[in-house]
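Box 3.1. Reading complex inputs
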Amino acid sequence: MQSLGSTRRSFAPWADPDAKPYIRFENVTKRFGDFIAVDDLSLTIYEREFFALLGASGCGKTTLLRMLAGFEHPTSGRVLLDGQDLRGVPPYRRPVNMMFQSYALFPHMDVASNIAFGLKQDGMQKGEIAERVAQMLKLVQLEPFAKRRPHQLSGGQRQRVALARSLAKRPKVLLLDEPLGALDKKLREETQFELMDLQHELGLTFIVVTHDQEEAMTMADRIAVMEKGRVMQVATPAEIYEAPASRFVAGFVGSINMFEGVLVKADGGAAEIRDRSGAPLLVGEAPAAAPGGTVWLAVRPEKMRVTRERPPEAANVLEGEIWDIAYLGDMTVYNVKLDDGRIIKASMMNSQRRLEDALTWHDRAWISFPADAGVLLTS
Amino acid sequence: MGGTWGRFNIAAIVLGFAFLYLPILLLVVYSFNESRLVTVWAGFSTRWYASLLSNDGLMDAAWVTARVAFISATVATVLGTMAAVALTRYTRFRGRLLFSGLIFAPLVMPEVITGLSLLLLFVAVGLDRGFVTVTLAHITFSMCFVAVVVQSRLVSFDRSLEEAAMDLGATPLRAFFQVTLPIIMPAVISGWMLAFTLSLDDLVIASFTSGPGATTLPMKIYSQVRLGVTPEINAVSTILIGIVALGVIAASIVNKRRDVLRRREENLARERGEG
């Protein structure tokens, strides 16, 4: 498959076969009684990477993070950090720090003491501690709040104290468990960029656990999509979105239209499938699959066009009736009901302020998309 | 709103409080009685308080009681807190149910039986009855009260605070002393106060386990009352009531003030908004 290109700085150690793995989960399984939280999972994370574990609650992502912090221990398999097996290393001797979902700020200490807590445990000199605390307060812009107790702070301020506290010891790896979950939407978006800048500035490895796909897409270099204790796909945000490896990943991240069909012909990259209604669909690139097998063509709504007239040169066209319209400002989402009852979601950018002859409910319309708009999935 | 205070309600409250406090009020009033006869009012006087100070028997008993209560409450608080931590933390060890049952059984055990069994034990091991045995007995029965109070606080304790401490490099022991203990301290202190009061007013168990030279105040009062109530007993009881009332009032004022302060600060933080 050709590269989809990267939207971010040219940082891709995972593509380099000589790159040294920094954190490795090797065939890790974790059971709680009969419940399998993590199921024979292997994963490699590189130094300075911003890595996201994405999945619904109960998929094992937090357990994975807690195993790295030392609060849970693998039932089988190994966890390695910088070549060292972490088995038997207690949490207080691991060079990783964690930012807890609840922030877990010590309520009986003020902000400065919270930040200094880890440094005191290491027996650092008093003057040095004060200096580092001041530095951390400046980093998160909380200098005027050093003497406040956690309950005297707003949610956003608490989040920043938790961040400063977990960064104060300059850990090799920072673990973030739903770091922005308790913030409102606007603050969350701002903080996402702050976290990215911070990670870049400090040159640390960040591992973030989140159930919010947008958050993962925004911040991470790579994302591991998890389900039932397994990793379904590890890839860059663009690859996860544009080239999902399975129907699960395709459906989990963003919205998508799925055409189930039979592979009719596959030669030299291009392929043709026949979908349920018997209509042929052309696909630009096809995986190695024998004709006759069941396949799924996944097409994102924004890769489709909705028009009143049949477009003359489109590779794939489908006819239907406008069933629902959602106007979102920047774009409009059309639900188009095909004649066989299937509903297809297509979205169009509103690049002009006024549309002449706009489509409306119950209009007949054509959906079209080029051959390379979709991904052919076999699983 | 005005109609809610009906005659019936007022009557119920007056009668209820009279039922609770009339005997105590009577005792307090008669402690200031001039007369030697307890039931005959002969004018106001504080002479019984003065004569109390020169009554060595009562003063000795008061001193014994204070020491027993202080030592037993302190030891019971340490042991009870440890038991509470073990019970809330290690929820899956073998025999946990048995252990927690054993800890809480003395709460409902008749005092006579606790006292008798302790007496039998002390006789069996040949421990002379006196100050040590009373103190040990009081530790035994007040420990489970402390465990209950501290455990109810620990159940709502956010474990991630301890995890955060360990994550930042604190050993489990340090995490306990620097994070957990300061946060649950109010519960530990009220456990101590409960143990202290329980020891202070225990008569039954002390009667079984005490010996010569270690007569506690309740024992002394009880034995003297059998020879007839003297105004001195009224006076010492009034002092006891005063100490307990002061403690309760001080604790509730401190709690209330902390509550108000906290709420004000939280409101302030909310008003200042996010960010």
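In summary: The two ends of chain B are 42 Å apart (CA to CA).
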